[in-house]
Each structure stands twice: as structure tokens, then as C-alpha cells.
Design a protein that fits this description.
Blueprint lengths: L1 E6 L3 E7 L6 E6 L3 H11 L2 H4 L4 E4 L3 H10 L4 E4 L1 H23 L6 H9 L14
Parallel strand pairs: 4-5
Antiparallel strand pairs: 1-2, 2-3
Helix pairs in contact: 1-3, 4-5
């Protein structure tokens, strides 16, 4: 399950897909708990819910609450893109806090400033490539 951003006017579309076939099963307007509740009411009756073993989704709390009610036995697996986003934010915050804890005027300040400006995996300014 995931959402698609449509723009300022319509905002979001919630999409529920089959994890094995990757086929979309259902779509609903908005990104709310009520939207996912409607999926369960319209498209997944209780007898079919018992067969669901796992659900992949983001860390959106309203969706998690809906899943807890409708699929209490299913394992919720967080989408790796969202997990990595949170992990990267935590690393960046730790890096910033360490920089300010040591102080920008320490001998390694310039080196740390470069590390803050260009986290691991991101390219920064470097020598120009030869033509």
C-alpha cells in the first residue's frame, strides 16, 4: 500500500497493490485512515483478510492504525525507502549535533563542515572533470 501525490488540488491517491503480482487492487482518494478503512469495507471482506500474512507500507500512523484494526495478525513491513529516509535524517542530525558540540572553531571544523555539507553518498564540489 502506498500513496501517490497528485498535486495541490487533489493531493493524494491511496493505492493498495498485491505484493506478489504487483498489480493494483484498489484506489481511493485522499491519504487518510478512513480511505484505507473504505478499502477493507469495499474490497476485502473479513474472510479474505485472514489470509493476509504481511502488508508493506510507509510509516504513516493513520494507515498503521487501520491495519491494526482490520489485519491484526498481519505483519507490517515498512517500505525500505521510508526506513532509509528516517535513518539518513538521524545520521544527519547526529552529524550536526557533533559538529556544534565540538565547535566550529576547533582544528577540524572545516573538515567537519565539508562532511555536513556533503553527506556520504552525495557528490559535492570537486575537481572539474577533464573534457
Amino acid at each position: 500500500m502506498d500513496e501517490i501525490f497528485l498535486g495541490k488540488k487533489d493531493k493524494f491517491l491511496t493505492v493498495v497493490s498485491n505484493l506478489e503480482t504487483r498489480e493494483p487492487l484498489w484506489m481511493g482518494k485522499e491519504r487518510k485512515r478512513e480511505t484505507l478503512d473504505r478499502f477493507f469495507a469495499e474490497a476485502l471482506p473479513p474472510r479474505l483478510r485472514r489470509a493476509v500474512k504481511a502488508v508493506c507500507g510507509d510509516m504513516w500512523e493513520p494507515f498503521r492504525l487501520s491495519l491494526k484494526v482490520h489485519l491484526p495478525r498481519a505483519r507490517l513491513i515498512y517500505d525500505k525507502c521510508h526506513v532509509l529516509k528516517h535513518a539518513n535524517a538521524a545520521v544527519d542530525e547526529t552529524r550536526r549535533a557533533e559538529f556544534f558540540r565540538k565547535g566550529a572553531d576547533s582544528g577540524a571544523g572545516a573538515r567537519q563542515a565539508v562532511a555536513l555539507a556533503h553527506p556520504v553518498g552525495e557528490s559535492g564540489p570537486g575537481p572539474a572533470a577533464d573534457p
